[in-house]
Amino acid sequence: MHMRKKPELLMPASCLEVAKIALQFGADACYIGGEAFGLRAKAKNFTKEEMQEAITFAHDLGKKIYVTANILAHNHDLEGVRAYFEEMKQMKPDALIISDPGVFAIWKEVCPEIAVHISTQANNVNYGTFLFWQGMGASRVVTGRELSLKEIAEIREKISPTFEIETFVHGAMCISYSGRCLLSNFMTGRDANQGACTHPCRWKYALVEETRPGEYFPIEENERGSFIMNSKDLCMIEHIPDLIAAGIDSFKVEGRMKSALYVATVARAYRKAIDDYYEDPSIYEKNLPWYRSEVSKCTNRQYCTGFFYGKPGADAQIYENSTYVKEGTYLGYLHEAVENGYFLMEQKNKFSVGEEITLLKANGESVTAHVTAMKDIDGIPMEACPHARQMFYVKLDVANAAAWDVLRREEV
Question: Under CATH, to which class is 8-176+231-316 assigned?
Answer without folding.
Answer: alpha beta
